[in-house]
Amino acid sequence: MVQIISGKEIGEEIRKDLTLEVESFKKETGITPGLAVVLVGENPASLVYVGQKEKACEQVGIISRKYALPENASQDEVLNLVDQLNNDSEIHGILVQLPLPVHLNESEILNRVSPQKDVDGFHPVNVGKLLLGEETFVPCTPQGIIELLERTGVEIKGKEAVVVGRSNIVGKPVAILLLQRHATVTICHTRTRDLAFHTKRAEILVVAAGKPHLIKGDMIKEGVVVIDVGVNRVNGKLVGDVDFESAKEVASAITPVPGGVGPMTVTMLLKNTLRAAKSLAQT
Fold it and tell me: How confident is the model at residue 44 (pLDDT cuts 50, 70, 90)?
């Protein structure tokens, strides 16, 4: 019988612990962790995500402030806002909601965020530290994936792990995290020849390709643990990058879409914000 890995349930468990941690931190220091969310424009999906983050912050006792700029905001306006937030002692974490409007230079804006407040883990300093295995902010989705595996009791050490997708936000960092936990890691992408050859070898399969139902049940091996990062809207319904129905007949454990990786991403953002507040309180 396949195990459905519920990110919703595991995320709720972690949030209960975080609520107690935040309360304890407030009592000890008199500081309430603060997260600033920078939103440029009115992308419908971004508005939904920002709403979810605000609700989650409220749930655990973190202050959430939304800074909304119009779609036509200039590069300088966004950079000036980031500078203000870098210097705001009540803000411990800064999140720039992606995607940004096309006229803006995304990397320049992300690089402007102070590495000490970079709760998304996208700043080159934090990416470098991750690669070197040093303590740093880990991008939220990859961090959530590792939590899902570990809290489900999946042994990572020595396993064949295959990651489908090589984005800077999910594919590359999750491959590094798996490698740090002693998995043997293969990264597949759009230029990979014979994708099924690689996915059939996986004991742990992470799919973050952004293509609905890319991985079918006949492309995986018996007993694999499948983590589906994809969120695609098909005929008004949210589906993953894995064909859930055929894959669950073969896998030993699998994440659903929705309710799998998504809730963990938001939970890890809360965890990173508390960590930033603790770190900045010591300086």
Answer: confident
239 SS3 class: strand
Domains, the chain, ordered by start: 30-114 (3.40.50.10860), 140-262 (3.40.50.720)
Task: Please give the sequence-ordered ranges of beta strands (E in DSSP) within the chain, or none if there are none.
Answer: 3-4, 34-40, 63-69, 93-96, 160-164, 184-188, 204-207, 225-228, 232-234, 237-239, 253-254
CB-based contacts of 17: which residues, under 8 Å, 6+ apart? none
Model-level pTM greater than 0.90? yes
Return the SS3 of 75: helix
97 is catalytic: yes
The size of the chain, in residues, is 283
Binned at pLDDT 50, 70 and 90, residue 93 comes out as very high
Catalytic residue among 53, 117, 159, 271: 53
User: Which residue in 97, 118, 241, 248 is the catalytic one?
Assistant: 97
Catalytic residue among 118, 120, 228, 243: 120
Evaluate whether 258 touches 231 at the Cβ level (below 8 Å). Answer: yes
